[in-house]
UniProtKB/TrEMBL annotation:
The chain crosses the membrane at residues 615-636. Its main location: membrane. It is found in: Cell membrane. It is a single-pass type I membrane protein. GO terms for cellular component: adherens junction; catenin complex. PANTHER family: CADHERIN-11, CADHERIN-23. Residues 1-22 form the signal peptide. Cadherins are calcium-dependent cell adhesion proteins. The lineage of its organism: Eukaryota, Metazoa, Chordata, Craniata, Vertebrata. This is Cadherin-11.
Length: 792
């Protein structure tokens, strides 16, 4: 503590000596005029004397971080008018006045009461003034001065980051820049060496070095290998005071990682790989994998594989799995154990990206031998062709040979095979195959027009191993024969004008043939020999599979004949040719002068002679008179016509209904079952349908029908009843009800006409005698009264 006080005192004395000299000179230059005084005249001629102020003070510097027991004397203020009698009072104001800095108002001494830190505040601006102690009247104008905080080395250097991370490529040259670290010192860089820093490396030798002035870290050893050591930890120190003894220091850690370069070629761990594959393997199937190791990483460690030699180059291929960096050997073509049992490949592994800087390290590739053994497998049969195409003529007889398929067992056993047709492809069963030799035959006649191609599938199965089978498609083409005659291409209907000119064409026809083009066109059109000299129409073959029909004569008339039927013979070009006769319907129509169609209906002739206006008026007058007469006649007839509604008492019409006995009238309420009347067949469960035609018709039994000339009404009715009862198709309403008695007391009276002969009637039925034998019975019943009297 005593040494600190001594050092502080020495520095203070040094500062006072330096600064006092300057202030004293400044004070003397300003104060000297005040010694002599200055005379000025007032308003009334009075001479005033004004004295210049003058200051004498001590040094105004203070050292930071002072920790002594007494306040630090910063300096002293003194005015030249201060005679020492204590009448002058010194006042201090400004930054830190009264808190950090205090002044003795009598002596003017300024002290710092607190420890100062230059890094927090480097200087303070204060104002001093001398006043009269008794009146507080300013004796001098206020004056500013600055108190500066003197720096000491109290802050160690600090790095911007506690930890640094950097990368540098492996095998970099010596002196390659890695990273620059920077430290800072809070001390005053303009005062002494407190902020002068020097960098040095504490850990990381001999691999790295650091520049003392800049802090740049550089490589110090050549050929550093990432595969040997990838990461390094370096400690850098920054020391102030220029690195001399007693300076403060700070450190930081730097992690340096070596990045990869392609400095290592790929290498197979073994010289030969052994693999095996089944004979039944399909192309694209994986056989095995090889891998060349490359200690590099990323794109520098990428390896590509290829087959450069061997007898299996055509049978196998190799691809690269970039996720695992393996070479995948795959089957390229199908194998045959019976023909070759093993293969050999020479595989090369090469780096994808090669760094030219390290090309001298040797070829960045390696080779290995791959031996592949084929294992025998039980294979299914194999057809000699992948597909078959056969031809057969349509309408060929059943049993005609279409073609033959052949398969074999590729295994050494060469098992026997059986053939069959997949019936899902031959639903109509047109074909059959010999199970032993594979011959395909027809079992039905084929029609090319119905189906031109038949696509079936044939199976070949090993006799002793049913699960081993093969399938082959077979396409059978049906060859056309000329079995269809040509016909009109459409339902033609021609129209010819009555005023058509001779040799005028009015329709062009064409033909269609269901046969193939070889047996179809070209078509030949002609008229039958019997009408080749048709007087009305003629035919012209256009030799392009069409024909034109022309008018041979002029002057057609719809009144004479409005429809013509022209037979036309059409022959095809097949061998042998076929022909058919087709009828063309030609209608005679009325046309205008330009040949446009007007009407094709038959019309009566209209006189061409012109009528005068008078004649037309006379005709119209006659028509009007006739219409008036007709209207009058109809009106008179309606007035005399009896009313359409006829009351029951005036109705003279009678219907003859025959009963076995008369009904009971209104009093008979239980004479019959109404359900039976509605549907007599419903009792037996037979319900005839009236919306469809019956499946069978009832044939009346012979012997029941009476003779044509029979007048026996009873037999006639009984016959009809039996026919109706035995006819299942008869409706249920033709029935006759039997009444046990005829009722009495009905207000309406009896409905029977059988007793009408005994009633009084003005009607004369004698005319029935003239109606013939069929009405003899009625004539006897309704004869005249004279007849009855005579009989009696």
């Amino acid at each position: 503590m005593k040494e600190d006080h001594c050092l502080h005192a020495a520095l203070l004395c040094l500062g006072v000596l330096c600064y006092s000299h300057g202030l004293t000179m400044e004070h003397l230059s300003r104060a000297r005029p005040s010694l002599h005084g200055h005379h000025e005249k007032g308003k009334e001629g009075q001479v005033l004397h004004r004295s210049k102020r003058g200051w004498v003070w001590n040094q105004f510097f203070v050292i930071e971080e002072y920790t002594g027991p007494d306040p630090v004397l910063v300096g002293r203020l003194h005015s030249d008018i201060d005679s020492g009698d204590g009448n002058i009072k010194y006042i201090l104001s400004g930054e830190g006045a009264g808190i950090i800095f205090v002044i003795d108002d009598k002596s003017g001494n300024i002290h710092a009461t607190k420890t100062l830190d230059r890094e927090e505040r480097a200087q303070y601006t204060l104002t001093a003034q001398a006043v009269d102690r008794n009146t507080n009247r300013p004796l001098e104008p206020p004056s500013e001065f600055i108190v500066k905080v003197q720096d000491i080395n109290d802050n160690p250097p600090e790095f911007l980051h506690e930890n640094y991370h950097a990368n540098v490529p492996e095998r970099s040259n010596v002196g390659t820049s890695v990273i620059q670290v920077t430290a800072s010192d809070a001390d005053d860089p303009t005062y002494g060496n407190s902020a002068k820093l020097v960098y040095s490396i504490l850990e990381g030798q001999p691999y790295f070095s650091v520049e003392a002035q800049t802090g740049i870290i550089r490589t110090a050893l050549p050929n550093m290998d990432r595969e040997a050591k990838e990461e390094y930890h370096v400690v850098i120190q920054a020391k102030d005071m220029g690195g001399h003894m007693g300076g403060l220091s700070g450190t930081t850690k730097v992690t340096i990682t070596l990045t990869d370069v392609n400095d290592n070629p790929p290498k197979f761990p073994q010289s030969v790989y052994q693999m095996s594959v089944l004979e039944a393997a399909v192309p694209g199937e994986e056989v095995g994998r090889v891998k060349a190791k490359d200690p590099d990483i990323g794109e520098n460690g990428l390896v590509a594989y290829s087959i450069i030699d061997g007898d299996g180059m055509d049978m196998f291929e190799i691809t690269t799995d970039y996720e695992t960096q393996e070479g995948v050997v795959k089957l390229k073509k199908t194998l045959d154990y019976e023909s070759k049992k093993s293969y050999s490949l020479k595989v090369e592994a090469t780096n994808v990206h090669i760094d030219p800087k390290f090309i001298s390290n040797g070829p960045f590739k390696d080779t290995v031998t791959v031996k592949i053994t084929v294992e025998d497998a039980d294979e299914p049969p194999v057809f000699l062709k992948p597909s078959y195409i056969f031809e057969v003529q349509e309408n060929a007889a059943s049993g005609t040979v279409v073609g033959k398929v052949h398969a074999k067992d590729p295994d050494a056993a060469n098992s026997a095979l059986r053939y069959s047709i997949d019936r899902h492809t031959d639903l109509e069963r047109y074909f059959v195959i010999n199970a032993e030799d594979g011959n395909i035959k027809t079992i039905k006649a084929l029609d090319r027009e119905e189906m031109a191609w038949h696509n079936i599938s044939v199976f070949a199965v090993e006799v002793h191993k049913q699960h081993q089978e093969a399938k082959v498609p077979v396409a059978i083409k049906v060859i056309d024969v000329n079995d269809n005659a040509p016909k009109f291409a459409a339902a033609y209907e021609a129209f010819v004008c009555e005023n058509a000119r001779s040799n005028q064409q009015f329709i062009t026809i064409s033909a269609d043939d269901k046969d193939d083009s070889a047996n179809g066109p070209r078509f030949i059109f002609s008229l039958p020999p019997e009408i080749i000299h048709n007087p009305n129409f003629t035919l012209r073959d256009n030799r392009d599979n069409t024909a034109s029909v022309l008018v041979r004569r002029e002057g057609f008339s719809r009144q004479k004949q409005d429809l013509y039927l022209l037979p036309i013979v059409i022959s095809d070009g097949g061998v042998p040719p076929l022909s058919s006769t087709n009828t063309l319907t030609i209608r005679v129509c009325g046309c205008d002068g330009s040949g446009s169609l007007l009407s094709c209906n038959a019309e009566a002739y209209v006189l061409n002679a012109g009528l005068s206006t008078g004649a037309l008026i006379a005709i119209l007058a006659c028509i009007v008179i006739l219409l008036v007469i007709v209207v009058l006649f109809v009106t008179l007839k309606r007035q005399k016509k009896e009313p359409l509604i006829v009351f029951e008492e005036e109705d003279v019409r009678e219907n003859i209904i025959t009963y076995d006995d008369e009904g009971g009238g209104e009093e008979d309420t239980e004479a019959f079952d109404i359900a039976t009347l509605q549907n007599p067949d419903g009792i037996n469960g037979f319900m005839p349908r009236k919306d469809i035609k019956p499946e069978y018709q009832y044939l009346p039994r012979p012997g029941l029908r009476p003779a044509p000339n029979s007048v026996d009404v009873d037999d006639f009715i009984n016959t009809r009843i039996q026919e109706a009862d035995n006819d299942p198709t008869a409706p249920p309403y033709d029935s006759i009800q039997i009444y046990g008695y005829e009722g009495r007391g009905s207000v309406a009276g009896s409905l029977s006409s059988l007793e009408s002969a005994t009633t009084d009637s003005d009607l004369d039925y004698d005319y029935l005698q003239n109606w013939g034998p069929r009405f003899k019975k009625l004539a006897d019943l309704y004869g005249s009264k004279d007849t009855f009297d005579d009989d009696s």
